[in-house]
Write a structure and sequence with these properties.
Blueprint: E1 7-11, H1 16-27, E2 31-36, H2 39-48, E3 56-59, H3 68-79, E4 84-87, H4 102-130, E5 133-138, H5 151-171, E6 176-183, H6 207-210, H7 215-228, E7 232-235, H8 241-248, H9 250-258, H10 264-268
Parallel strand pairs: 1-2, 1-4, 2-3, 4-5, 5-6, 6-7
Helix pairs in contact: 1-7, 3-4, 4-5, 8-9
């Protein structure tokens, strides 16, 4: 499995799954474009990658879709093309639906849905002109089901599935693949950085994420699925079973979800 000489653009590359994916793709021979809002952290990741001097850092805010055409032009000028786009950046939620402000719901949708869609649309013309390309979307188990405290996050992930399933059906004749990756709990800081009802960050990482799979295991799945052109893959622990319950016995899943609780007090614990 090799990506030798291929240009792989990864968003959310400054930590967590994105950082692990950067190391994995670099080991597979890729030339990387690393993006997030945190330039200093991106530089740290770049320096830690194999063949560090071959990679580029490009600051990107998923909430600023108006900047994407210029950023894509910059990447194309530096690299000559984009073989793989890994839409990994995003932000989670820990708030009851009735408490979450409309402004925060819009932030969650902008970063988790509209941003990846807009960046993909900005990259696609170059891929279509070459007749080849791979689009990877790091979704979530929450793209298939919903649980308390994650209403808008789940909505954004569900929306990603609808959009990119349709995009796959439109582009397969042009040599462009679309892969959806659905992680369960991964041991990253995503829960610590999740947004509360007013946009405040949650605080300490939850035990479910601390005991989750490693980012490296998730990244290995991403690289393997991308290389094989898989349409959709799941990676995680027992929580991934929820996808199958939703598909085959949704009534059982609904009973399980109804027993789950979420409160401000629990969120702070």
């Amino acid at each position: 499995m090799t990506f030798a000489g291929q240009v792989v653009w990864i968003t959310g590359a400054s930590s967590g799954i994105g950082e692990a994916a950067a190391y994995a793709f670099a080991r597979a021979g890729a030339r990387l474009v690393l993006s997030s809002r945190r330039i200093d952290e991106l530089e740290r990741v770049r320096r830690a990658c194999d063949r560090a001097d071959e990679h580029h850092v490009v600051a990107l805010d998923l909430g600023r879709a108006d900047t994407f055409p210029a950023l894509v032009a910059t990447v194309l000028a530096r690299c000559g093309g984009i073989d793989v786009l890994v839409n990994n950046g995003g932000v989670s939620q820990r708030a009851l639906a009735t408490d979450t402000t409309a402004a925060i719901e819009r932030v969650l949708m902008e970063v988790n849905y509209f941003g990846p869609v807009a960046l993909t649309k900005a990259v696609l013309p170059a891929m279509r002109a070459r007749g080849a390309g791979r689009v990877v979307v790091v979704s979530s188990v929450m793209g298939h089901l919903g649980t308390p405290g994650r209403s808008t996050y789940a909505a954004a992930k569900h929306a990603l599935h609808g959009y990119f399933d349709s995009l796959r059906a439109e582009l397969w004749r042009e040599g462009i693949t679309v892969t959806l990756v659905c992680p369960g709990y991964v041991n990253t800081a995503i829960s610590a950085h999740a947004l509360g009802p007013q946009g405040e960050q949650r605080g300490p990482a939850e035990s479910t994420h601390r005991s989750g799979i490693t980012p490296e295991r998730c990244a290995a799945t991403i690289v393997r699925a991308t290389a094989r052109g898989r349409s959709e893959v799941y990676v995680g622990g027992r929580e991934v079973a929820g996808i199958y319950l939703q598909r085959f016995v949704p009534a059982i899943l609904r009973r399980i979800v109804r027993r789950m609780t979420f409160s401000v007090e629990a969120r702070r614990s």
